[in-house]
Amino acid sequence: MQHVVKKGETLSIIARNYRRSLQQILRANPHVNPNFIIPGQLISIPGLPSPDSIPYRIQVSLNKRSLSLFNNNRLIRTFPVGIGKMVTQTPVGEFVIVNREPNPGGPYGVMWLSLSKVGYGIHGTNNPYSIGKMVSSGCIRMHNKDVLELASIVPNGTSVRIVPS
């Protein structure tokens, strides 16, 4: 897959966000000067398919506190979610699912889907009453049965768009 460099990013930040080593990023991008990258530049991320090759996409509406799953741009399912608190807001933007971990323990419920921003993901919960509320540290919380259903459908590389409305 290709990452478009954003203002303020370095190759180290990009590597961390995609859970890749800096060496993996450098090997996949031999033409890139690691000391000089600019916004808009394309960086290859090894080991992830292009989101364009995946028929699924996810859109999270923060105001509606919902996660919508699309297949070939056709809505197939909408799930209720919990989102970040006012002081630890869920980030708005375009991300991809970079990896997953079943049964991560703690408050993350039965599944963790990492987003391409360190520290953020879509996960289950050990507190089902938090769904529909602004209570997380910025992650997107789902009922355990819902996150298992979602994880069984979407592969790593699936695009996740988080919007305010």
Short précis:
With 165 residues, the protein is of the alpha/beta class. It is built from 3 helices and 12 strands. Strand 7 and strand 8 form a beta hairpin.
Characterization of the model:
The chain is α/β, with parallel strands linked by helices. 15% of the residues lie in helices and 33% in strands. The chain contains 3 helices and 12 strands. The protein has an 8-stranded mixed β-sheet, with helices on one face. It has a two-stranded antiparallel sheet with strand order 1-2. Strand 7 and strand 8 (111-115) form a beta hairpin. Helix 1 crosses helix 2. The mean pLDDT is 97.
What is the typical, i.e. mean, pLDDT?
Answer: 97
Give the helix/strand class: alpha/beta
Instruction: Please describe the biggest sheet, giving its number of strands, its sense, and whether it closes into a barrel.
Output: 8 strands, mixed
Global shape: globular
Poorly predicted runs are none
For the biggest β-sheet, the strand order reads: 5-4-3-12-7-8-9-11
Task: Assess the beta-strand content as a share of residues.
Answer: 25-35%
N-to-C CA distance: 28 Å
Determine Rg (CA atoms, Å). Answer: 16 Å
